[in-house]
Amino acid sequence: MAEAHQAVAFQFTVTPDGIDLHLCHEALRQVYLSGLHSWKKRFIRFKNGVMTGVYPGSPSGLLVVLVGYMSTTKYAKIDPSLGMFTKLSKHLPISKYVTEEGQRIVGGVLIGTGLWIAVTFVMRNVLKYLLSWHGWMFNRHGSLSLKTKIWLVLVKVFSGPKPMLYSFQNSIPRLPVPPIKDTVRSYLESARPLMDDEQYKRMEGLAKDFEKNLGPKLQWYLKLKSWWASNYVSDWWEEYIYLRGRGPIMVNSNYYAMDFLYVIPTTRQAARAGNSIHAIMMYRRKLDRAQIKPLMVLNTIPMCSSQYERMFNTSRVPGVETDVLQHMNESKHIAVYHKGRFFKVWLFYDGRLLLPREIEQQIERILADKSEPHPGEELLAALTAGDRDPWAKARSQFFSRGKNKQSLDSVEKAAFFVTLDDTEQRYDPENSVQSLDSYGKSLLHGKCYDRWFDKSFNLIVFKNGTMGLNAEHSWADAPVVGHLWEHVLSSDPVRLGYTEDGHCKGNPHPNLPGPQRLQWDIPEEGQAVINSSLKVAKALADDVDMHIIPFNDFGKGLIKKCKTSPDGFIQIALQLAHFRDKGKFCLTYEASMTRLFREGRTETVRSCTTQTCDFVRAMMNDKKLKLLKVAAEKHQDLYRLAMTGKGIDRHLFCLYLVSKYLGEDSAFLKEVLSEPWRLSTSQTPLQQVDLFDLKRHPEYVTSGGGFGPVADDGYGVSYIILGEDLINFHISSKHSSPETVGSLSVGHSQRHTTLLGILDVMSL
């Protein structure tokens, strides 16, 4: 394959006539362009930092204030400092060199700047105060109260024009610590439908004892942390829920996102990779320049953008006790895996980002490479799929020096990871169930050694041009990765496009240096650790039972006619499906965002409520539309409470951590946190609706994404509501559990029937 150009900028040799110096002008040119690119990036970051730091004010606003202020004082002959600057200047050594007019100008500049700073400070704090009110969340769907309308107008008035991605970060309020009394009451309410009278009475006693005795002491420490830290939950959540986990992150933590459901824009693997990689890097450029518009609810209320910071150039590094997230400020290359070989591909040349056809050219070179993997190289990534401790020890022992360290650095410090998969995956209408199930499992775990599960995300491009993502969970939640993926899917076939023969538009580069093959020297002991990790990973992957169901009998349009929340409707349908299958209810987890608060991540909505159980029992005997509406409204209330910082599970989690730090045991907290989430659910929202015109192009509908089961004897359910008539479900469980074995494959048609059964309710 093609090799890189001369890597040094000059060479010299000593001759009898002296030193013979040979300059490589091309190398010097590339060094100059690389430095120029880096300085441009630093300047942009500095400028964005200034713009964000003074928001909702702006430098142009300062200029307007100064010009207006100075003009007024000049023609009105008014001293803006009311004589203060004149008195002060008498004590300055330079006062005799400054005229009275000059003193007036300097005074005007200082007073004008101070006025601008004061106005900016007031606007920012008023905006923070306004954003601390969440009463708008509790308006009935489709209608806004007068109070909410006035509030929205005030938010717009005190928000600056044209916000950048991080403009609102200083105005977003901190996550409040809920009162102990409210959390305990809400927990008991959620536990009631899952316990008999005796169990509930016992738990009620534990809860009341905790509320009265140990709870207030733990609460005091949490309030102290909430005053000091940006978010009292997020750092502990990241560390203890994700980074300290010692089991495999494949299946258990990582999640996936799918391609378009019905179309593949090109069947050329290299071309699809070329457009997608270019689109991802264009998104990174916008991210670096903070040009991405912050996510806004009702186009007015900003959500926290902090999770975007580690999307690129990030890798999870294993440790013996805890992992760490390694983030680079900049990375100019990607790591690519194909048929057991690792490659380093530079994405910049001549001081610019490679165009899609040039990236396709690099991918074609990799696909054409016939070299064999080094010993241990083909299965190397299995280390990232198995248990964390063996990977941490192997990394220290076998990858801490020499060529192994250099190659590992190339992978871990890459912008992201790309797998050129040698299998074909896509939705087949003639075999919809098996084709999508195979596709989903491939994205979730693949062969267990052909994805680098530690990278922030993997782009997976299959042999037939279908693609998808696999994302690591600790650095951010799915909506952030979904935002990137929506940009890629909307850019690929429409904005970038392909030629008639399926190639990326444009021409190959005649002098482009080729990809660099990474070198490995893995000893037999290291290969043994790799094989051991692969064995663990394959057992986990083979145990996953997954089904993906495109449900198009009805969708959001019909559900809204019932004046019911689509999300609440689906959650209740899942409860009904579970009860029909198991004959009992279970603790149910639904993820909700808390990004209305600074550095917010998620909160739990406990979807199995008394109202939902009442409806399900009624459905088993009769159809009850009223109970459906009551249950759906209760679910929406819980969702709103979770989003506005009044959820219970993150609070209980933090109280438990404080008790451990203090060496205090709480029977109540211990029992609550040991309860298994046998039904774990999450909606994948379509955030940038304006990028997809599903009415004109219904074929460009995405499949959404999914994740593995949280409990060994439970289900993982992800769903995405698309347009008016489509809901895609991703359901996972484990073959090894007698509770779930066979229930997905055997009961596939029954799940359609369960959802369709809700339609009978709407006919009342």
How does the SSE layout of this entry go?
Elements: E1 10-15, E2 18-23, H1 25-53, H2 59-76, H3 84-89, H4 100-131, H5 146-158, H6 180-191, H7 197-212, H8 214-228, H9 234-243, E3 255-258, H10 269-288, E4 296-297, E5 301-302, E6 314-317, E7 324-327, E8 333-338, E9 341-346, E10 348-349, E11 352-353, H11 356-368, H12 388-398, H13 402-412, E12 417-420, H14 432-444, E13 457-461, E14 467-471, H15 478-496, E15 516-517, H16 524-543, E16 544-551, H17 556-561, H18 566-582, E17 588-593, E18 602-606, H19 610-621, H20 625-643, H21 649-662, H22 667-673, E19 679-683, E20 705-707, E21 715-722, E22 726-734, H23 743-746, H24 748-762
Parallel strand pairs: 8-12, 12-13, 17-19, 19-21
Antiparallel strand pairs: 1-2, 3-14, 3-20, 4-5, 6-7, 8-9, 9-15, 10-11, 13-14, 16-22, 17-18, 21-22
Keywords: Acyltransferase, Fatty acid metabolism, Lipid metabolism, Membrane, Mitochondrion, Transferase, Transmembrane, Transmembrane helix, Transport
EC number: 2.3.1.21
Family: Belongs to the carnitine/choline acetyltransferase family.
Question: In a few lines, what is going on in this structure?
Answer:
The chain is an alpha+beta fold. It folds into 5 domains: 10-53; 59-133 and 145-158, no CATH class; 181-244 and 647-675, Orthogonal Bundle (Fumarase C, Chain B, domain 1); 252-544, Choline/Carnitine o-acyltransferase, domain 2 (Chloramphenicol Acetyltransferase); 552-644 and 676-764, Chloramphenicol Acetyltransferase, CATH 3.30.559.
